């Protein structure tokens, strides 16, 4: 944290984002006013009982769904890096992803599988899903989400390689638009050893195996 409002520094590289005080009641109030207008403009009555608190709920929900802007993924990783003589692949798979596409601000959701090969240091396992969330809880495209997770791990932990695979359903493709209910989008990003076919194949085999 290095600013007057105690808002943690966000990760670099998000064009156009400016820092906000996400939990400020004035901000929630101001967003609620906009959502009240939205309700009116879609033909609803914002004063009917069921909708009275809806603008405020939606405002709080949106602020929560984008709270990743306030988090610094590199700080999270460095907070739990341990020197360890382990040089095989570490895979954390089936990490739930909930994000929102930046085109329609509709959810996309699914799973992320993340692997790295240590180079002297390992990271606390829980930190991997945490950094997935840091980048997912922003307006995103799946490709950038995938690359940001890869780059963050590579630059911070400096392992021998990183592999990230993300599989998601996009509500903007199922609830509206092209209306394809069953299509799943898969993206991947690799560095170092994972650029070699043998390592990549090992990773892909591990994430497709079932424990139970
Ligand atoms: N590459 C990529 N595209 C995405 C993602 N999420 C949503 N989109 C796409 O963003 C595109 C936006 O295209 P536009 O033609 O400007 O928007 P639109 O008229 O609403 O398009 P339709 O969804 O086809 O109705 C659509 O093709 C979406 O499917 C994502 O994570 N990655
Ligand atoms: Zn979309």
UniProtKB/TrEMBL annotation:
For molecular function, the Gene Ontology terms on record are:
GTP binding; GTP cyclohydrolase I activity; zinc ion binding
Which Pfam families does the protein's record reference? GTP_cyclohydroI
Give the CC-aspect GO terms. Answer: cytoplasm
Q: Which residues form the GTP cyclohydrolase I domain?
A: 33-207
Q: Which reaction does it catalyse?
A: GTP + H2O = 7,8-dihydroneopterin 3'-triphosphate + formate + H(+)
**Where is Zn(2+) bound in this sequence?**
101, 104, 172
In terms of InterPro entries, this protein maps to:
GTP-CH-I_C/QueF (IPR043133), GTP-CH-I_N (IPR043134), GTP_CycHdrlase_I (IPR001474), GTP_CycHdrlase_I_CS (IPR018234), GTP_CycHdrlase_I_dom (IPR020602)
Q: What is its EC number?
A: 3.5.4.16
UniProt key word 4Fe-4S: no
| Pathway membership | Cofactor biosynthesis; 7,8-dihydroneopterin triphosphate biosynthesis; 7,8-dihydroneopterin triphosphate from GTP: step 1/1
Query: What's a single GO BP term from this record?
Result: one-carbon metabolic process
- Please name the Gene3D superfamilies in this protein's record: 1.10.286.10, 3.30.1130.10
Q: What are the UniProt keywords, alphabetically?
A: GTP-binding, Hydrolase, Metal-binding, Nucleotide-binding, One-carbon metabolism, Zinc
Note whether Ion transport occurs among the keywords: no
Write down the top EC class of this protein.
hydrolase
Family membership: Belongs to the GTP cyclohydrolase I family.
Quaternary structure and interacting proteins, as annotated: Homopolymer.
The name this protein goes by in its record:
GTP cyclohydrolase 1
- Species whose genome carries this gene: Mucilaginibacter robiniae
Gene encoding this polypeptide? folE
């Amino acid at each position: 944290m290095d600013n007057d409002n105690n808002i943690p520094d966000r990760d670099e590289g998000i064009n156009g984002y400016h820092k906000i005080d996400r939990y400020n009641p004035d901000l929630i109030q101001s967003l609620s006013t906009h959502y009240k207008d939205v309700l009116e403009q879609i033909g609803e009555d914002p004063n009917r009982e069921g909708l009275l608190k809806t603008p405020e709920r939606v405002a709080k929900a949106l602020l929560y769904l984008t709270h990743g802007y306030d988090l610094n993924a590199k700080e999270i990783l460095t907070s739990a890096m341990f020197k360890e003589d382990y040089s095989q692949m570490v895979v954390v798979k089936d990490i739930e992803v909930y994000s929102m596409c930046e085109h329609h601000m509709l959810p996309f959701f699914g799973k992320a599988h993340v692997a790295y090969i240590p180079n002297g240091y390992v990271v606390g396992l829980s930190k991997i899903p945490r950094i997935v969330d840091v980048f997912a809880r922003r307006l995103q495209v799946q490709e950038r989400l995938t690359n940001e997770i890869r780059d963050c791990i590579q630059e911070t932990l400096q392992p021998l390689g990183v592999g990230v695979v993300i599989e998601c359903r996009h509500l903007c493709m199922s609830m509206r638009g092209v209306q394809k209910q069953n299509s799943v989008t898969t993206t991947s990003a690799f560095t170092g050893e994972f650029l070699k076919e043998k390592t990549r194949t090992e990773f892909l085999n591990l994430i497709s195996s079932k424990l139970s």
